[in-house]
Amino acid sequence: MTRRLLSVSALTSFLLVALPAPSAVALDEAARLWLVGERAFGDGLHALARRTLERFVAENPTDARMSSAVLLLGRTRLALGDAESALEAFRRLRTLPPAGEPMEAKFWEAEALLRVKRLGEARAAYDEVVRKDAASPLAPDALYGLAWTDLELRRPEAAAKEFRDLLTAWPNHPQAGSATYSLARALVELKRFDEAIPLLQSFPAKFSGNKLIPSSQYLLGWARVTAGQWKDGVDDLRAFVAAYPSHELAPEARRKITETQVTHGSRAQQQSVYTQLMNQSPPTPEALFDAAGIAGRLNQPKEQEAAWRRLRKEFPDHPLALNAAHDLAAAAFKRKDWKEAAAQAKAAAATDEDGLRARALLMEGESELKLKRFKDAAKSFEGVVAVKGVEADDRYRALAGLGLAREELQDLRGALGAYDAVAAKSPNAELRDWARNRATAIKGRLAKPPAPATGDKRQ
Question: The CATH number of the domain where 419 resides is what?
Answer without folding.
Answer: 1.25.40.10
